[in-house]
Design goal:
This protein starts with a helix and ends with a helix. The longest helix is centred in the last third of the chain and has 35 residues. Helix 2 runs antiparallel to helix 4. It is built from four helices and no strands.
């Protein structure tokens, strides 16, 4: 649990630093694009690692041929990527709502 909290803290700090730096360099739209792009990539990687994008036959074959350690490792990485994506998507959504209100 402690490692997951560290992952969330580090990704939140990274997200805020990137968003503020992009805002000072250009404007809110650049911050929006960066946050949503990074969040989307991390979310897609999380789905790939979890097997959510596979067909039923492929999931069944992977389940029957992989070891318990492989499944645990794949689930762990999927969870960490999802935790890292959450702050980027949240900040991106907040910036989107702010930009929408300003226009």
């Amino acid at each position: 649990m402690k490692m997951k909290m560290k992952t969330l803290l580090y990704s939140t700090i990274t997200c805020l630093v990137i968003a503020v730096a992009a805002f000072f360099i250009s404007d809110l739209r650049l911050s929006l694009q960066i946050c949503l792009s990074i969040g989307g990539i991390l979310l897609a990687l999380s789905m790939v690692f979890s097997g959510a994008l596979g067909s039923g036959e492929r999931i069944r074959a992977n389940f029957n041929t992989s070891t318990v350690e492989d499944n645990e490792t794949r689930f762990k990485w999927s969870l960490y990527l999802l935790i890292m994506a959450a702050p980027f998507l949240t900040v991106g959504f907040i910036i989107f709502m702010v930009v929408k209100q300003l226009n």
